[in-house]
Amino acid sequence: PFSSLDALTREDVQDFLLSVRRKRPLTIIMVTHSIEEAVYLADTVYVMHGKNPGAMGNPIGIARGGIPHGPSQFRFEGRFQEYCGALRSALKEKA
Length: 95
Fold this sequence. Notes:
By secondary structure, the chain is mostly helical. The chain has helices spanning 7-23, 35-41, 78-94; strands at residues 44-45, 48-49, 55-56, 60-61.
């Protein structure tokens, strides 16, 4: 949803979305082709595959709790890259 934005604005909008979600108990459903965006924004990621309407694979839970310097620091943690790798593997399995 934020693909047409420049990188820094996209990160600001992603952080804004997370701040709104922290303030209000919302369920947000988002479709993206960006692995990093999915990992950064989601609590749970589902990989869709198959023909329309498609099927959903097993959920990938994203645990980002305990980030000492705010949510934007999650991008720089090793576990962020681990989640991105797990999602990338799940996408390749469905190809």
